[in-house]
Amino acid sequence: MELWSDLRMPAPIRLRELIRTIRTARTQAEEREMIQKECAAIRSSFREEDNTYRCRNVAKLLYMHMLGYPAHFGQLECLKLIASQKFTDKRIGYLGAMLLLDERQDVHLLMTNCIKNDLNHSTQYVQGLALCTLGCMGSSEMCRDLAGEVEKLLKTSNSYLRKKAALCAVHVIRKVPELMEMFLPATKNLLNEKNHGVLHTSVVLLTEMCERSPDMLAHFRKLVPQLVRILKNLIMSGYSPEHDVSGISDPFLQVRILRLLRILGRNDDDSSEAMNDILAQVATNTETSKNVGNAILYETVLTIMDIKSESGLRVLAINILGRFLLNNDKNIRYVALTSLLKTVQTDHNAVQRHRSTIVDCLKDLDVSIKRRAMELSFALVNGNNVRGMMKELLYFLDSCEPEFKADCASGIFLAAEKYAPSKRWHIDTIMRVLTTAGSYVRDDAVPNLIQLITNSVEMHAYTVQRLYKAILGDYSQQPLVQVASWCIGEYGDLLVSGQCEEEEPIQVTEDEVLDILESVLISNMSASVTRGYALTAIMKLSTRFTCTVNRIKKVVSIYGSSIDVELQQRAVEYNALFKKYDHMRPALLERMPVMEKATTNGPTEIVQTNGETEPAVLETKPPPTGLQPTSQANDLLDLLGGNDITPVIPTAPTSKPASAGGELLDLLGDLNLTGSPAPAPAPQISQPPFLLDGLSSQPLFNDIAAGIPSITAYSKNGLKIDFTFERSNTNPSVTVITIQASNSTELDMTDFVFQAAVPKTFQLQLLSPSSSVIPAFNSGTITQVIKVLNPQKQQLRMRIKLTYNHKGSAMQDLAEVNNFPPQSWQ
Question: pLDDT tens digits, residue range 492-546?
């Protein structure tokens, strides 16, 4: 009876019926219930060792796995199917192994022997299944064990097996690179094959070997003429139905050969020369009406740009990209803009010919195309086209989405600073940016514009009048209000006198000027920093205006009790100036001098700037005159055990957060600091009775050029940091190091922080950096001054820590600098 009941057990449903049933489910819960019911039936069948329907059950399990349901309990059943002698069982078993197994699970090692047997099977289709599985999920152990069988199949005359063996060899090389030489003899003969499938996979194998081994790259360069011949035959061959795609013969093989030629021709004159003609033929004979032709042309352009090609060929490649910009397909336009952005530095004049088309892309509806077009437009700006390009970019700034405004404004600032035809044009351009997108500009825009205005002496009256009119009744653009407040405080007398020659002067009274500044102080839109600018401007006007000094005193005294600590401190100090230090007020509040950048010891160099050659002097920012508090310098001394060194800079002590100590100790790492004496407290300097009394008339450092060669302290991932050196003539033991950080990548590096530590026999002081953003494409630098006291004249060593954000990721790196020139410490 039991045997009779087994015979009457219903057969499991077929895969097609399961798919139809699951698709009838109206809800997720109903589908889940069906899957669970079927999985339970499959588990029961597996437990009963049902060989009849194992293949069907595993196939259904794979379908459920593809729907996202767990199917790991079928792994061993896959191995049983692989061991079966039936081809249908092996096919499902190998498919299940590729989907359910990977090298992280030890189960996969159990199939090594089965794969080895199947690689030596008499049927090519079984051998093909084993090759596919090994090439898909073979671990490094399996690849080592089976590499010999794969190499043997590479030499077979069967093209069906050779193409699968070539792809399997690619996987073996990726897993075990040292086995590469095993495949070298067999690989040489693969290019003689007529079968396109074998040719395609052999080119993939050659590409992998060349990318992984410089020796293989040099070895295979002699195959360039043969590859050129294959590519030429593909172009010149007539219609071939089995290889034709949209009228082009085997575009997949053409693309693969072009990629391999790009690798072989890179940095090699002979190989590049051998492929110049065929690249020109491909570029001129390929049909562009279909996407297939565009794919081949794009690969051709990349190859031309990457090898040492002729100048005429490079112009042809850029013209192809220019035609891509007119294509209706957004992807093709984006690819063209990205490629032009990469080549603009080397072939600037050729890209300039397509400037109008690139500018038109700024009006595209696609945000990705807009961003690439904006970046490329900035790269094309030079002294000859700056007016026209800035007009287009300012129009773009007016109408673009908010996420573009910050980058666009920064780009306009940099381009205007570099190529401005006149100072008035420069000031007008930056003011236009501030009025259009002032709230989006970066923090360094305000001090940079103030410096520009200060240095343009003849434009002071014009600038202050323009800024005054710009903020009348509108305080929403905070950077604009900050610059306007600073200029009104600095040049308010010129505004009231109406001495503007550049445009029609306006009549403004002293009270009207103070009304504007007081409105900024009480406006809800004004940030704390903006109010600080306005209060300082009002204070400066006390020495420039004559009739409203009493009103200014009243305003300043009111803010002496402000809840804003910054405003309160300013107001209290300014009140003290009016009372106790009134004799010093005119001198302290006199007009700012012209801010000149100091040149380094290096000679004038010729630099290339967007297609124009012009002389430029390498520049760094001078050390700030205001020095940091003593304890900030001595905290590092305490960490380094410098209890016997007196501070270099005697200024008022302040406290420093304890967390900085841990970072500096991490920085020191393995600098081999011997001994750990108890840190001595920083010497107490008698503090002046008031902050303003500490103003010194003599600079502590009078730096002179000492002819010390500069060094590159760090160069990695596009970030480069150079050190230049100066020695103090007042204290020969002090070395002043100016760091310059530049960024050669295509995106800005933000939140840049430079930290340094030295052994305990030195004293180090880090002054504030010029900015926290390093502009892309080497279009600007961050400068920071380090002062090092070396009383024992020992060799200087330093450990540096760099943190910054780039491409959305937080980056951090440590490095040691041990190559300081002897002149810097002897």
Answer: 888 888 776 666 767 888 888 898 898 888 888 888 899 999 999 999 998 888 8
- Other Cβ atoms less than 10 A from the Cβ of 804: the count is 24
Instruction: Give CA–CA dist 711/815, Å, rounded.
Output: 14
User: Looking at residue 9, what is its pLDDT?
Assistant: 53
Q: Is the dihedral of CA 644, 650, 654, 658 positive or negative?
A: negative
Q: What is the pTM of this model?
A: 0.62
* Closest C-alpha among 281, 279, 323, 286 to residue 301: 279
Query: How many Å apart are CA 282 and CA 234, to the nearest integer?
Result: 10
Kindly calculate the radius of gyration of the chain based on its CA atoms and give it in whole angstroms: 37
The HSE-up count of residue 272 (CA atoms within 13 Å, CB side) is: 16
CB 762 within 8 A of CB 634: no
| Contacts for 619 with CB less than 8 Å, ≥ 6 apart | 597, 598, 599, 600
Print the SS3 string covering 608-641. Answer: EECCEEEEECCEECCCCCCCCCHHHHHHHHHHHC
Phi/psi for 599 (5° steps) reads: -90, 155
**DSSP string for residues in 198-267:** HHHHHHHHHHHHHHH-HHHHHHHGGGHHHHHHHHHHHHH----TTTEETTEE-HHHHHHHHHHHHHHHTT
Structure tokens of 466? Answer: 């323009």
Q: What is the model's pLDDT at position 174?
A: 92
Q: Which of 195-204, 255-264, 380-389, 724-733 has the lowest mean pLDDT?
A: 724-733
Contact 595, 563 (CB under 8 A): no
Please write the tens of the pLDDT for every residue from 693-736.
444 334 444 444 447 888 999 998 889 999 998 887 778 888 89
Rounded Cα distance between 613 and 616, Å, is 9
417-432 tens-digit pLDDT: 889 898 889 888 888 8
Confidence check: pLDDT of 271 > 60: yes
pLDDT bucket at 651, cuts 50 / 70 / 90: very low
Question: Do 703 and 728 form a contact (C-beta atoms < 8 A)?
Answer: yes
Sequential DSSP letters for 741-787: EEE-SSS-BEEEEEEEE--TTSEEEEPPPS-S-B-STT--EEEEEEE
Residue 775 contacts residue 766 (beta carbons within 8 Å): no
Residue that the structure tokens 């959305």 belong to = 808
* Calpha distance 300→277 (Å, rounded): 12
Label residue 673 left, alpha or beta by phi (over 0 means left) and psi (-120 to 50 means alpha). beta
Q: Is 735 helix (H, G, I), strand (E, B) or coil?
A: strand
Q: If we measure between CA atoms, which residue out of 52, 122, 126 comes closest to residue 83?
A: 126
- Residue holding tokens 């002979």? 270
The DSSP secondary-structure symbol of 794 reads P
Query: What's phi and psi for 81, nearest 5 deg?
Result: -65, -40
Return the bridge partners of 712, or none: 722
